[in-house]
Amino acid sequence: QGTRDHPPAQAALRDRLLAAVVACFKRHGAAAIDTPVLELRETLTGKYGEEAKLIYELQDQGGELLALRYDLTVPFARYLAMNKITNMKRYHIAKVYRRDNPATTRGRYREFYQCDFDIAGQFDPMIPDAECLKIVHEILSDLQLGDFLIKVNDRRILNGVFAVCGIPESKFVTTCSTVDKLDKIPWQDVKNEMVEEKGLSHEAADRIGEYVQLHGGLDLIERLLQDPKLSQNKLAKEGLGDMKLLFEYLTLFGITGKISFDLSLARGLDYYTGVIFEAVLLQQENDHVEEPVSVGSVAGGGRYDGLVGMFDPKGRKVPCVGVSIGIERIFSILEQRVKASGEKVRATETQVLVATPQKNLLAARLKLISELWDAGIKAEMFYKKDPKLLKQLQYCEDTGIPLAAIVGEQELTDGVVKLRDVATREEV
Amino acid sequence: QGTRDHPPAQAALRDRLLAAVVACFKRHGAAAIDTPVLELRETLTGKYGEEAKLIYELQDQGGELLALRYDLTVPFARYLAMNKITNMKRYHIAKVYRRDNPATTRGRYREFYQCDFDIAGQFDPMIPDAECLKIVHEILSDLQLGDFLIKVNDRRILNGVFAVCGIPESKFVTTCSTVDKLDKIPWQDVKNEMVEEKGLSHEAADRIGEYVQLHGGLDLIERLLQDPKLSQNKLAKEGLGDMKLLFEYLTLFGITGKISFDLSLARGLDYYTGVIFEAVLLQQENDHVEEPVSVGSVAGGGRYDGLVGMFDPKGRKVPCVGVSIGIERIFSILEQRVKASGEKVRATETQVLVATPQKNLLAARLKLISELWDAGIKAEMFYKKDPKLLKQLQYCEDTGIPLAAIVGEQELTDGVVKLRDVATREEV
C-alpha cells in the first residue's frame, strides 16, 4: 500500500527529471554521498516530533534495532557527526519511507524519492541560506513548471511572536505545527485548534493571528523591526535582522520577485532553528480569480543548527541549512503534462534493429549485432530464428528505433548491409 | 552492521562504475524499471530456498506484512505477473538486503547494489541466454578488470547427472547446494557433506564426483552427449543439446575463449530451471603458479522459466533469463586500484571558484556567481564575507577546481573579471 512500480516510460521520465535536479546541484559544487536505507532506531528517535509514529520499524531478528530512514536530513547529520566533518556541501537523491496515509492521486506515497542539497559549516550569516533559495529558484525555473512562489520565514521570528503573545515556551513547538496549517485551512479553524486542542487563551490566539497572517517583502521586515513588542524580543530581532540580510543577497541574485516573507510558514519538523522556506506552484484557476491558487508545496527546507550536535558525544554543533526538492509532486505534474501533450516518451535508446528478410539468417544477425555492440552502437534484434521482416520494421515504429540494419541473402553475397531509415523508408 | 555510508570520493567512483554498466545495458536495448524496496512477505516466501532466513522483515505495525527485497529478480517476476507482461527486456540497478554475516573486507555487505539485466518472453532457445553472456563479457572487458572466466552449466544437466547417479528427486535441490561449494572446498569435503549431512550413499556421491569435476568446451559437450548413461536421461539430453546451441551462438559472438562449460557450477537459488552461469576474475598469483587463482564471482545469472508463473493466479509461465553484475565486488577492486595508483577522484565537478582579493566585495561575488550559475557554469564561492585570496586559491588546488574568477577593486572599476588558471597561474 502506498508504493508503486515504475514502468519503463515513467522510469525514463523520472531519470530525465532527476538529471535536471542533479545538474543544478552539481552546478553549485555539491558532492554526492550515499547512506543506508536502514538506520538505527535510536538515530531517528526524537527528531521528527509528532511525525515519529510514521517511522517504519524493522522486526527484531537479533542484533540491532533498525528502522527505515524517514528523510535524508537526519542521516546526513548522523554522517557528519560520525565522521567529525564540520564543513560540507552535499546532495543526496534517494528513497525515504513514511507510514502515512497515502494520497497516491496527489503524488503522495509511502515510499518516495527525496532530492536534498545541504550546506554544513560555520559561515557568515545567510550566505548559504541564500544559495539554497537560489537553487529552488533555478530548479523550478529550469523545469518550466509555471509560476511559483517561495515563502520564507524564520523559526526565531515565530518563537519571538509566540513569546510576545504570551505563549509559554513549552507550547512553542505544538503551536508551530498548528500555525503551519494556515495554508490549508482558514484562520478561524487554526484559532479554534489553538484554543480547543492546544489550550491557548482566546486573547493569545488573536494576538498570534495578527502576526501570522502577514506576508510581504523588505517593507514588512522593516515594519516588524520597528514593532514595539517584537523589537523588544531578542530572538525575533535576530531573526528579522537576518531576514533583511537574506533579502539583500536575494536582490543580488535577482530573485526577490518570487520570494515572499510569510509569517504563517512554520513547517512541521522539530529540528529547524532559523530560516525556513517552502516553494509552491501557483495556478491561475481562471481569469476572474484575482489571487493565484496554490497547488501544493514542491520544495522546502531551512536551517537546523542543532541536529548534528545531537549525534556528537560532546554535543559539538555543526550549523546546517538545506533544501529538499519535492520530486514526486513535480513528477506527477510532468507526467500529467506528457500525457496531455500526447508526447511518447521512449523507454529505450536503441539506435538500430538488426533484421533479416529471409529464413536461416540468424547467424548473420548474431555476427552483425555483435560487431555493432562492440563498436558501442545501441542495437537490438529479435530472439526468433526466422522473424518476419514486416514485424521487425513494425517493432521499430512502435518503439521509436530510427534505423534498421538489414542482412538478406543478397547482402550476404555482396558483402554489404542495407541500412533503412524507418521514418522515411530510405535505404542505402 | 554490514552497511556503510559512501563518502563523496566513493560515491563519485561508484557513479562512474554504474554509468559503464548502464551504458552496456542500454546498448542492448534494455528499458529501466523501478520497484519498491518493500515487498509483501508472501511475495518472497518460497523463492530462496535455504537463504530465506536471511530476509529482513518489517515490524507488524498494522496493515500488510512486509519485507525488504532480497534480490531484484523476484520483484521483476512479480512485476511481470502483476501487469500481465509476457515480453520485456529491462535493467534495474538498486539496493537489496540480506541478513548475512557480512564480510565487509571482501566487499560483502548486508545492504548492497545489484545491477540486473533480464529478458522475459517466449523465444527460440538460447538466443537471449547467449546475449546475457555477451553482456557479462562486454562489461568485464570494458572495466578492464584483468583476466576472467565465465563458467556455464545447466540445471537440467545437473538434475540429469543426479538422476543417473541414483539420487532421489527429493534430494536434487539440497545436493545442488552442496555441489555449488566445489569452487571453494575440495571434492573430498564436498563428498563428506553429501554423505554425512545430505544422506547420500558413498557410491552415489562418487558417481556424482566423476561428473561434477569435469569442465571444458564443445568437446566436453559432445563427449557427454555420447555418455551411455547421461544420453539416456531426457533432461540431461535437452540441457546438453541447448548447451551445444549456446556455444554455437557464443562462437558467432567471438567470446568462447572466456567461457567454460563447468559441471560443478550449481548456484544456490531455487528458481533456476535451465542455463546457469557465473563469472570469476582470474589472478596470476605469481609466475610459478600454473593455474590462475579465482578471486571470486563478479557476475552470475541463469534461466528461471517458472518464477513468473508462481505469481500468476492461473500459473501462466513467462520464460526468463537474466544476469546480475556483482557491482560491490567490482567496486572494491576498483577502489583498491585507485588507492594503489594514487589517483585523486574529484568529488565535485566545479569549474570555477568566484574569488575576491580584498575586503567588502561579497556583493560583487554574489552578483558574478549568480550570472555564472544562470549561464550553466559550475561555480562555487566561499561563504565568508571577507575570505583571504590565498585560502581561496588553496581550496581550488585541494579540490581540483581548474579556474578562479577574481573580482577585486581594480576589476570592478574596469568592469572586467580576472580569470586565473589555477595550475599554470596564468591570468587573463
UniProtKB/TrEMBL annotation, chains A, B:
GO terms for molecular function: ATP binding; histidine-tRNA ligase activity; identical protein binding; RNA binding. Residues 1-357 form the Aminoacyl-transfer RNA synthetases class-II family profile domain. InterPro entries: aa-tRNA-synth_II, aa-tRNA-synth_II/BPL/LPL, Anticodon-bd, Anticodon-bd_dom_sf, His-tRNA-ligase, HisRS-like_core, HisRS/HisZ, HisRS_anticodon. L-histidine binds at residues 71-73, 98, 114, 118, 267, 271-272. It catalyses: tRNA(His) + L-histidine + ATP = L-histidyl-tRNA(His) + AMP + diphosphate + H(+). Keywords: Aminoacyl-tRNA synthetase, ATP-binding, Ligase, Nucleotide-binding, Protein biosynthesis. It is an enzyme of class 6 (ligase). It comes from the Eukaryota. One of its GO terms (cellular component) is mitochondrion. One of its GO terms (biological process) is mitochondrial translation. Its EC number is 6.1.1.21. Belongs to the class-II aminoacyl-tRNA synthetase family. PANTHER family: HISTIDINE--TRNA LIGASE, HISTIDYL-TRNA SYNTHETASE. This is histidine--tRNA ligase. The gene is Hars_1.
